[in-house]
Known about the structure:
Blueprint: H1 4-22, H2 28-61, H3 67-85, H4 104-135, H5 141-156, H6 159-164, H7 177-186, H8 188-212
Amino acid sequence: MKRQVPLFITFFVGTLLIVSVFSPPIETLGEDFSVFFDIIAVFAFFLGGGNLLRVHLTKISRRKHDWAYSIVTLVGFVVMLWAGLFKVWNEGGIAASVTAEESLFGMIFNSVLIPLQSTMYSLLAFFIASASYRAFRAKNREATILLVAAFIILLGRTAFGTMLTAWMPSSLSAMEIPNLAIWIMNSPNLAGQRAILIGIGLGVVSMSLRIILGVERTYLGDDGK
């Protein structure tokens, strides 16, 4: 029963949602189940917060490697939770938006979190540049095409790229670097993106059917056995 009940609920809800898409009388069931999903997701937040506290408190108590960072994590978690739940320094009171700029939550978010994210992405730029150098080396035909396309797009986004081909007559405007960059982005690049999206969609459909039919049971734990 421990396995059969979740499998039955998954099969029933999954089948009902699929049928509701094609059956107008019950099409609102999809929206109703979305509300149920939001309610269940709230419990997931509690579980996630509890698990975060358990993991980092254990790490601090046992003085594991880099345990000092766990203190920073816990302090940040508790302060943000306190500021968000009680709307600290929020002029509108408990009923106002949690993201109000004058609130403590908003101040921490705008003054600490956003600069930290900007710093992290700035550091990532160096790693991206290093990865691009390794990926764009013209070792074969495909890498050469990628290198040329990337170079045209990068150049086409700059004023220097526009200046290089500004002398070309209007009959050859399609060969100007900015127009070439636009064509690459709108034709080959878009086609590749759509192919990837189609592949993702087919993968989602395949995995959904496996879960609904009970073939995929790893979400039950213990490899679904």
